[in-house]
User: Fold this.
Amino acid sequence: MQKMYAGGRLRALREQRGLSQSGLAKALALSVSYVNQLENDQRPLTVPVLLRLNSTFDLDMGFFAADTDARLLADLHDVFAEDPDGATVSTAELDDLVSRVPAAARVLVSLHRRLRGATEQLERFSAGIESPTADPGRAMPYEDVRDFFYDHRNHIPELDQAAERLFADHGLGIGGLDLQLSKLLRERHGITVAIRSDDPHRPGPKRVYDPEAGRITLARRLSAGQRAFQLATQLAFLTQTATIDALTARVESMADESRELLRVGLANYFAGALILPYTRFRDAAEELRYDIDLLSAMFEVGFETVCHRLSTLQRPGRRGVPFFFVRTDRAGNISKRQSATAFHFSRVGGSCPLWVVHEAFTTPGRIRTQIAEMPDGRKYLWLARTTDESTPGYLSPRRDFAIGLGCDLAYADKLVYSHGLPIHDDTSAVPIGAGCKICERPDCAQRAFPQLGRAIRVDENRAANIPYTPADHRGEPR
Assistant:
């Protein structure tokens, strides 16, 4: 086992739990001097100490992993990749920076974001298409919301527990949940539910709530599971206002537009937790070995809804497999990404073309699997399938998306999708990366862009087998 030095993470855990070094030492049955040495990286974390930490504080397996701060590490890669001098900074050095002084790493990322935003804004202003009034360093609202859920490991216990209580208190059951929620809204809130037929060529919104009339109107095109989700979302705004307000209030310096979008995201989280109650769903997932089709049939919801819920099962003491969830279109644009673990794709450029999620479009409705290896050596089990999006008519534009669900290969035995896969064969993994522009693989024949900040070799006397042949800092081929 490679020696693991994680003093920064251990110190952060201690401060998060409000413990002194002596308090942590007592909880772990260690000496104070030993804890001090661990926090100052004078001693590595041993397996027995890791097991004590995980059992004492109910930590997930990846808490002390080298890629726990994957999003911050990926953002740092973006920062240094765009500077030619940054090519000399290794991944190990960046990981050391994130581990020891994460606050400094965040400042670097923030400054880089502001610099990039200011540069882009100056270019738009010079072209006469924008006035220089907006904050150039402010993230887009959807990025703020995505980062909020990422920071919470895609698990919001307050809403999860509230949804489970509401499900039990009102005697709800699995099956026909849309009708049960309609009855609940009518009897407890005086709100009726109506179904609306739209022009097939101009479909309206999925849900419209008229508070004055006390009526929710749902589109007829929605399935029973989709109707239940929309009604559950409206119930979130009716019954969970205080909780949602408290959660959004904890976030400092977030723009108003981002806060409004976050409120919708939290209401959607509650809806998913209500139609797929934590304990029932988690226990069923474990029993069925995370078979998504069987879970969809059992809970009467679609493939995407099940996958999204699977990525949230991180209740202390009753954790499920820590999944990461993505939704992408045919062009490779990722429109949704949620993670219960540390996996992270780069903000720069597109996703890896070797990733199995892109192959899902070639076999609609069929689940594809892949054992993938990232440049740092970590291996993952991925499954991908297209969504169940329906089209209102033959001439209507199609909505094609693929869903990807992945987990660390260490969890593969718990999934039915590992059946028949060579999960113990180190040579079977497909090498993928976080995105061409920051991927460190020099010999990838599928590369679409050269790595940012790295020189490429141009030789008119040679025709290389790979695009964008890299050169080291002396200008020589690798």
